[in-house]
Amino acid sequence: MSTTFSPRDVSVLLNGVKISDWSDGNDVIQAKLNADAGSYTMGANGTGVFIANPDQSGTLTLKIKQHSPDNHYLDRLFKQQRSAIKTFIPLTLSIVDLLNDDKVSGLNGYFTTSPDYTRGMGHNAVIWTLVFEQLTITLEKGLAHS
């Protein structure tokens, strides 16, 4: 059975504003948790203890086309955070794969890395990196398995 996916059918909202002008590549939207769910420590007698990790933070990486209006929007938010952290309102994230129903949500997000400025003989993606205090990834079975 084949599966179906289209980057045009992924909705990415940061503070309710749609981000959609993706660069080329297989990883233009990447969300990942920052820590393992826990660790298992084994004792000398062969029994273990599992220590659950309460860290639910995660990192979002977005690759946007060079000269996209999306970069302008993200740059203004980044500059607000850098110049007035006391009044900066942390970011919210909502990602929905409209074909397959996968979802990612994030709360209390901040920019961590300033994007590089690279120009040359080819297109250069602008890479934005954000961290969220809480990131939830929900994977569904997908369109082909409905």
- Strand percentage lies at 35-45%
Number of domains: 1
State the strand order across the main sheet.
Answer: 2-1-7-8-9-6-3
Instruction: State the separation between the terminal residues, measured CA to CA.
Output: 12 Å
What is the approximate shape?
globular
How would a textbook summarize the main sheet? 7 strands, antiparallel
Number of helices: 1
Task: Describe the protein's architecture and organization.
- InterPro entries: Phage_KPP10_Orf10.
- It is a single chain.
- With 146 residues, this protein is mostly beta strands.
- The chain has one domain.
- It contains 1 helix and 9 strands.
- The strands form 2 sheets. The chain has a 7-stranded antiparallel beta sheet with strand order 2-1-7-8-9-6-3, covered by helices on one side. A two-stranded antiparallel ribbon has the order 4-5.
- The radius of gyration is 18 Å and the shape is globular.
- The termini are close together.
- The model has no long low-confidence stretch (mean pLDDT 91).
